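Justification of resources, computational component.

The compute hours requested in this renewal are based largely on the per-chain cost of generating structure records like the one below. Each record pairs the submitted sequence with a full structure-token output. That output is archived, and it is also reused by downstream analysis tasks.
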Amino acid sequence: MKVGILGAGISGLSVGKLLNSHLDVEVLEALPGIGGIAQTRSCEGSSYHPIGGHCFNSKHQDVLDFVFKHVLEKKQWNTIERKAVIKLKDKLLTYPIEFAVKQIAEFDPDLAIDITADFLNTYQRDDCDDLETWFRTNFGNTLAEIYFLPYNQKIWNMAPRKMQTDWVRGKLPIPDKHTFFRGLLGNEKDKMPHSSFFYPKTNDQKTFIDSLAQGIRVILNYRVNEIEFDKSAGEWIINNDKRYGILISTLPLNNLPSLIKNTPQSIIDESKKLKYNKISTMLWKTKETKQTWTYIPDSDTIFHRYIHIGNFFTPSKNLSITEAVGERSYEEMALEGKKDSFLIEPLDYNVSDHAYVVFDDNYSNTKSIIKNYMDTIEINLLGRFGEWEYYNMDECIKRSIILSENIINKYIFKKA
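The structure output for this chain reads:
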């Protein structure tokens, strides 16, 4: 049986590799290159991610096994310690901020006392109606107001009180009161899986992406304009050209329904409710830093984070990416960068299309309606935009493993 995979990003390539030895797999990619939002671009002898910063680690052993045993051996990766900081009141604080109270006390003791009193009086829980309430409930009002609310306002371009909380579980380190207290006394650190991460020794994530695609038939510059199901043959037809018995889509869920012939107008209308953000990035030559990320909650700058991509490299380089939500001009990004003496010279610039899904009030219901419809017509959805979830690279691979196992069990083992 022939499998058609729409999109050659991390998700499409991962499921393609997992299915390739069992079924006839073909991947269709609209762009001239593979990798999706994890792709890299070369600039003055270095490669960087024009859409965010993409590193690899995972809490899932099967994901680690797949990558290191079947894609790119572990000896081909460097292990990098995550050294993230938060720039607050022109001070650099260790990440996560709840473990930086001792540092805050050095320049603002009253603020440190307020943070501590608030946090120790929280009653942590997940069942909150909106994101602002979730931050206030789990971290206290003071931490919410000085960091979590302004930072999330910037990265989502939406007031947290208007957002759902679906994305946050598993994304943020949430200490209990004992861990917070140990942070006051000692040097408690982030123990999330990405507190360290892997990056290819070539200093280019393209090495991993190319290895992922090895052995898979990928057709580039192939834009999907129409999808139709041929009932008599039991096959999906793409652009009145290609035919597949199984179809996997990583295409953005807000666009997919309009491409499928005979999709009910109600489903198309729902898809138009899905919101996403673009991001603008600029690569800079910088002063030296030991950090890997800098998070910036301050509303006085359009940048919400610096990705110090040069510290993903061995040997390291003085290169960083500034990131701002939405479409920003080259001039706006360059002018903003001049406000920070750390940023020396702009080297490259990019504006993405889809970068982050937005978890607004419509998110859960709208996504559920569309996905239920796709289930009824047996189109398999996969990936950050295919499933409309805030997935990192490792979670995209995990979802690919799950989907590939389901397909193999349904179409191969059951027939056998």
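Residues 293 and 307 are 5 Å apart (CA to CA). The mean pLDDT is 94.
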